Amino acid sequence: MKALKTVAIALGITLGALIVIPLLILAGLFVWLKLTEESDEEALELDQDTTA
Fold first, then answer.
1. How far is it, in rounded angstroms, from Cα 20 to Cα 31?
2. Is the dihedral of CA 33, 34, 36, 37 positive or negative?
């Protein structure tokens, strides 16, 4: 019975990791996209100022 409980806990941890890790990766990519998007807009504004 103890082995079954151990296997169930291990399976639960594994399934939890399979859900949590991709969500963390997506959240990191979203934050990175937002940070780089702001710097891209600033670069575009600087380009427009120098050409005008």
1. 17
2. positive
Token pair of 24 as six digits? 């963390």
Tokens of 44: 């575009």
User: Given a cut of 60, is residue 52 above it in pLDDT?
Assistant: no
Among 4-8, 10-14, 19-23, 39-43, the least confident range: 39-43
- Each residue's pLDDT tens digit, 19-33: 999 999 999 999 999
Task: Mark out the alpha helices in 1-52 (DSSP H runs).
Answer: 2-51
For residue 13, the SS3 value is: helix
pTM: 0.59
